[in-house]
Amino acid sequence: DVSRNYLNGTIPKEWGSSTSLTYIFVQGNRLTGPIPKELGNISTLRELTVDDNWLSGPLPPELGNLSGLSLLRLTSNNFTGELPQTFVNFTALYDLRLGDNQFTGKIPDFIQNFTNLTTLVIQGSGLQGPIPSGIALLERLNDLRISDLDGPESRVPQLNSTDI
């Protein structure tokens, strides 16, 4: 955990050769550049938190190799592009935060496959609506924050959980 240390530079691609790294917490620094695609090689990685940095560029599809990832926090950076289709593999996720970025494209339908999700934050992400109706299938969801979507007006799906 090297959070909130005013670190400059980039996330080292060499971290991708780790065989035992479980958590990467680098939030609240001044890191720049993209997330290295090599991080997708860390099969033991369970939590990736890069909030509140100056990271940019599209997310590498290789991150989709992290099928055991349970927490992904990307909030408050300058990420662009669409969410990679390989993220469909994130079925263990319980916490996904994408807000305050410059993503493009629609909120992907594959989010409905994240059945363990308890927290979903898509505020000011740059993503477009409509909100996928499959979000209603996320029965464990208790923290849902979606705002500032681009795109056409749409209805909010009927949510089954009374805990939101």
UniProtKB/TrEMBL annotation:
Transmembrane segments: none annotated. One of its GO terms (cellular component) is membrane. Its main location: membrane. It is found in: Membrane. It holds the Pfam family LRR_1. Keywords: Leucine-rich repeat, Repeat. It comes from the Eukaryota. It is a single-pass type I membrane protein. This is Leucine-rich repeat-containing N-terminal plant-type domain-containing protein. It comes from Eucalyptus grandis (Flooded gum).
